[in-house]
Write a structure and sequence with these properties.
By secondary structure, the protein is mainly α. Helices cover 72% and strands 2% of the residues. The chain contains 14 helices and 2 strands. Helix 5 packs across helix 11 and helix 7 packs across helix 10. The chain is globular and about 50 Å long.
Length: 253
Amino acid sequence: MRSNLLALGAIALWATLAAFGVALSQVPPFLLTGLALLVGSLIALPLSGFQLSRWKVPLPTLALGVYGLFGFHFLLFLALRHAPPVQANLVNYLWPLLMVVLAPVFLTHLTLRPVHLVAALLGFAGAAVVILGGAEAANNVSGGSVWGVSWGYVPALGSAFIWASYSLLTQRVAAFPTAAIGGFALVSGLLSLLCHSLLEPATPLSGRDWLLIVVMGLGPMGAAFFLWDKALKLGDARHIGILSYLTPLASTA
């Protein structure tokens, strides 16, 4: 029960992520990802008793954390800029479905049942409908389209795979304290800002931009990670993945 409540808390926060991404669409994706993750990393300070030593993890675990936090958010914000936001968000939220389907691949002690396969087919069919249904809207989105379908759906699907695989792979690495998520966010944020300085134009931020970034960093790109990690540690990844089917509904609403 506790793991479900923690997962629901993360889901409630993630329901606001796409809305923040759209509201901050004028901020370059590397810059937005970097600043929000740095803000989110601060939550780990009180969790670790302000002892940074509790953030220390083996290098492969740190690499996995950067893969999840940096890769997922960069691709999501990229998708929201190059595809109709609602449709891109729904494709991104295939990750709960992918988490269930991929569970036996990454966690060999789990197996798939026919109902899981049926759900997977329905989910991917729904994603196809979303993409094709958004083809007309894609023509009005910056970045162009291929055969009437925005290429922005590609990073949306990539972000879904990254978060699903990250969530499952955290079950395979050596146990680490939830406070170590702060280190994942810190390194991911610094990497994002480095990419911004090398690849994106300097962009001034308004007071409104800073306010939204701080709230986003403390919520869907901060507290949500810690709640999610704790939920995965206490519960069954496959069951939590099924519970996460609520995410696209809440986010779209």
